[in-house]
What we know:
By secondary structure, the chain is mainly α. The chain contains 12 helices and 2 strands, in the order αααααββααααααα. It has helices at 2-31, 34-39, 49-53, 57-64, 83-89, 105-109, 118-121, 124-129, 137-141, 156-160, 172-175, 177-185, and strands at residues 90-93, 99-101. The chain has a two-stranded antiparallel ribbon. The longest helix has 30 residues, at 2-31. Bound molecules: heme C (4 copies).
Amino acid sequence: MKENQMTKRITYLLISGLITLTLLAAVALAEGEAAPEKKEEVTHDFVGAKKCKICHKEEFASWEQTSHAKAWTVLKPEEQKNEECIGCHSTGTTAKDVFLEGVQCEACHGAGADYKKKKIMKDTEKAMAAGLVIPDSTLCLTCHNDKSPNFEGFDFKKYMANPKGMHVIPTAEEAKPEAATEKKES
Ligand code: HEC
Ligand code: HEC
Ligand code: HEC
Ligand code: HEC
């Protein structure tokens, strides 16, 4: 009987101890890591490649020739209705409900509604805070993987150098209208 009470008491102490620890941990989490995780949930609207074209004519003209730009049209009409095919062969839907066919700029660079203003675009850090993505192999692998029925393997270096898929990356000077003017003057 006595021993039983003792066990109860120990159990009680253990449980209240655990509750205290859990509460402390929750407070620590709330102050620490929990907050930034929430920030990542911010989503941005897609605007479509034509909006990027206004300022990035060279990248656009080059992208238009790539298989990414044509990724929607390789699907047969019935495949264009198949949820299992749409994801990797399209980009998303704009705020005005326009469906963006093929692998457009924003499939790789992030939805652009909040970074496309010149003032923000000029400052890489601000642009990235507003959703711009400078893509690396991790991004490519979200589509170039064995869930694709036509997967042919993926070698980042090889694929980056393949003009069938990648738009030209102009040199920094070509990309900057200001820099180009300076060059002419000197
Ligand atoms: C109003 C003009 C404008 C529009 C519209 C625009 N950009 Fe830009 N973008 C710029 C400027 C200016 C830069 C900076 C160029 C530089 O300094 O080399 C830039 C830079 C970039 C960079 C390079 C970032 C870096 O620092 O390496 C990417 C990628 C990019 N833009 C993608 C896009 C995409 C995708 C869209 C469409 C959603 C878009 N831009 C729309 C003007 C624009
Ligand atoms: C996980 C992403 C993903 C899914 C899901 C996906 N695809 Fe693709 N698809 C790709 C990629 C990436 C390629 C480019 C092939 C490569 O280089 O690996 C491609 C290429 C293709 C091609 C061109 C083939 C060629 O060799 O030129 C066709 C056609 C195609 N896919 C049809 C489909 C159909 C139909 C479905 C749905 C049943 C589908 N895809 C689902 C990513 C995907
Ligand atoms: C398949 C993915 C993909 C698509 C689609 C794509 N890009 Fe890119 N883009 C990249 C990669 C990768 C880089 C190089 C990033 C780096 O600097 O490491 C890049 C670089 C850029 C740059 C920076 C060039 C510089 O001078 O540094 C601009 C600007 C840009 N892209 C604009 C665009 C625009 C506009 C479109 C649509 C017309 C587009 N991209 C479509 C993957 C993509
Ligand atoms: C949103 C999905 C998606 C992303 C992200 C993506 N791709 Fe693709 N890629 C495709 C699809 C789909 C095709 C096939 C399109 C077609 O055949 O018309 C393709 C085709 C290609 C091709 C042409 C292959 C060939 O043999 O013709 C290259 C090269 C390529 N991608 C490189 C890249 C690189 C590099 C990245 C990352 C910077 C990337 N892709 C990101 C979906 C994607």
